[in-house]
Amino acid sequence: MPKLASSPPCHQCIARCCQQSTSGWPFAAMLEPEEVGKFGEFAVYDTAMQAYVLPYDGRGRCYYLDAANLCQIHQDKPKTCRDFNCTRGHIIFLSRNPELVTLLDTLDK
Length: 109
Known about the structure:
By secondary structure, the protein is an alpha+beta fold. It has one domain. The protein contains 4 helices and 3 strands; from the N terminus they run αβββααα. It has helices spanning 20-23, 79-83, 91-95, 98-106; strands at 29-30, 44-46, 51-54. The radius of gyration is 14 Å and the shape is globular.
């Protein structure tokens, strides 16, 4: 595996973590209990996870992604989104996204 960048390239985001076809997750984000009210417009209870989540829209994208694949709520996104770091510990996610691995490999050089 190539040497990846040490921090996520959110400034060059291609939103792979926010789309079902490339993330592999069954929902866009898991919500902390205190976030349910803030994102209540889209929040649904997932019985398998026993938590509230933000589901994908009908196209398999996070409801908050705009047409340019940028997060419309970047400054106030859920904690799981803020904590996600595509450069660490996400081997399956990275294996699904070779173009992201290429991008990460070109950074920090």
